[in-house]
Amino acid sequence: MTRPITLFTGQWADLPFEEVCRLASEWGYDGLEIACSGDHFEVDRALAEDDYVQGRLDILARHGLKVWTISNHLVGQAVCDDPIDHRHQNILPARIWGDGEPEGVRQRAAAEMADTARAAAKLGVDTVVGFTGSKIWKYVAMFPPVSQEVIDDGYQDFADRWNPILDVFDEVGVRFAHEVHPSEIAYDYWTTERTLEAVGRRPAFGLNWDPSHFVWQDLDPVGFILDFADRIYHVDCKDTKKRFDGRNGRLGSHLAWAHARRGWDFVSTGHGDVNWEESFRALNHIGYQGPISVEWEDAGMDRLRGAAEAVGFIRGLLFDKPNAAFDAAFSSKS
Ligand SMILES: O=C1C[C@@H](O)[C@H](O)[C@@H](O)C1=O
To answer: Keyword annotations for this protein (predicted)?
Structure first.
């Protein structure tokens, strides 16, 4: 099946896997982008237990669902981050956090990402979506002043930590799709260029296109698809609504999610400022045939509503390109 519509399970980790399958199936999804969160997909068990992977596939099959991608954003975040602190303790499995000594956490996170590739191969999927973390994200405002050497070292640190992980991805025939996202090594056009260069544009490292992270930076999600056509390994659909009015800023002002005065918030797919039709035309243009995954993260709309209606919205955009130009029959034969 090309361009199946999947539900990303990261925001449903409080529910048992079987229950998420039931809901997604009822709403008409073709499958899941399974997050390594909650009981949805446990990397250590997938590698250690003979029947674990088959058990996941059996549950999916019972609900008429398939899987093309797994995700491990939370562990990937800890591979390059500096500092490693209470935020990571809150999102990491206890066995990765361990005693919390920062370099130990980074090393265990790197080993787990390599194992995630092995587990993905065992499950029969060819793409792992996730974050990389970044040693230099903390310098985004560039004050106190930061030297170019420090920035260069950040990209080198990313390459040094991720190349050995990507070697394992290559060994097992799986690709990593990094989600371009503030807080990561690649968060916009120029940082994506620099990141791809840092790992020599090796095919094991590509991108997860999620337009919600571009919109509030005033980047063009459509242009991004065309610029990085050969690197779009996965698509996540989430929307963003901007409310920049001269007082509400793009940095969020440390206001809580859904605060009426925030400059922007994530909203359910189809309810924000993403130009979805142009985006899907661009995906058609580059010949993207992979999964289209729906991610719900809307502070103003219940997930049972947002995720249920998104599948129909996306399906309405999955039109094909014509096989020939409208006037091909009249073109000259000479
Ligand atoms: O894919 C994602 C992973 C989430 O954990 C994160 O909140 C979000 O920004 C996102 O897009």
So the answer is: Lyase
